[in-house]
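Extended Data, panel c. Modelled sequence:
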Amino acid sequence: MIFCENCFNDKEIISIICSVPLLNTGKCPLCHNEGHLYNTDTQNFLTPYFEELLNIYAPSTTLPETYPRAKVRSLIDDLKDRWNIFAEIPREQIYEILKSICGELYANVPELFNGAVGIPELYDSVYLREHALLKNNNWDAFVEEIKTKNRFHSKLINFDILEKYCSFIRKPYKKGKLFYRARISDRSGYPKSEMSAPPAGKSLEGRANARGIVCLYVASDVDTTLHEVRAGVFDFVSVGTFQLKKDITVVDLRAIAEISPFVEGLDYLDHAINKQYLEKLNIEMSKSLRRSDSTLDYVPTQYIVDFIKSITHNGKQEYDGIEYNSTTNPGGYNLSIFNPDVFECMAVDVYDIEQLHYTFTRVNR
């Protein structure tokens, strides 16, 4: 069977296909794009990668009785939804690609390809205690404990696992990169000296910091920071342009969904278990607090961010902050910076909020 790198979304698989020596290029018979043509009749570079991944699955007929039957589904659906390996090509083409790459596995275990499957360890409490980021496999239970029972010494998180995953989503920024921070003001605006984070002891709670702990929140662009400050119509907003004074490295929570199961050093099974928790962390970091919400809702993310802040390498702090999505302005993103001194406010512009646009859905009570 012949296909090309454009049949896939996964960066590692794309890289492998493009690096195969003496590979022909041309129009792909599956996706009809120009690309590097991989022929499973003559090439087997992809086989060990896919066989190792598929080996974490089991046919539904062999799953333990305790496995939730509602959680079993076809191999193709799980590969598409959990891993985002394939591009937008028809399911039948994905099926044929898998059969051709893993011909021997298909011959030995055809029910893996043709029936419903599951990952047994996802619901194995003994395995999860050792291999899951959350030992009890329950984000809500972790939130309840950290908010109401044991705020500083919870034993529900495997910090070694969290530290390992941070290393896969590290992102560098070069000196000179610009970000933006907004404050509601009057028409005259704030001076540059008052646009950074509040000093130690004066900071209010945020997703990444407890009350009193310094943290600088900046956004990727002016539009995003204006949305994040949640100004009202006719408000004036001061927007500071912040420039990096040095190279920094952040943990990019936005990249969690893009971590390939095929990346070197990552265990397929552990990644299947922990991907959901890491994606949940990005969602929680991105949430805006409603007026009716309690600042206690910040505690779970504060707890995790404090650990990330404490990670060191050769005696030096490993990460300078956290990057996460903006929910108030989809497409934008925010940084929570542990040490505001890595930025300098270069200029301040004042904006007049002239109009707001609301999107809403009716709530069923």
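The longest helix spans residues 268-286. This feature is highlighted in the accompanying rendering.
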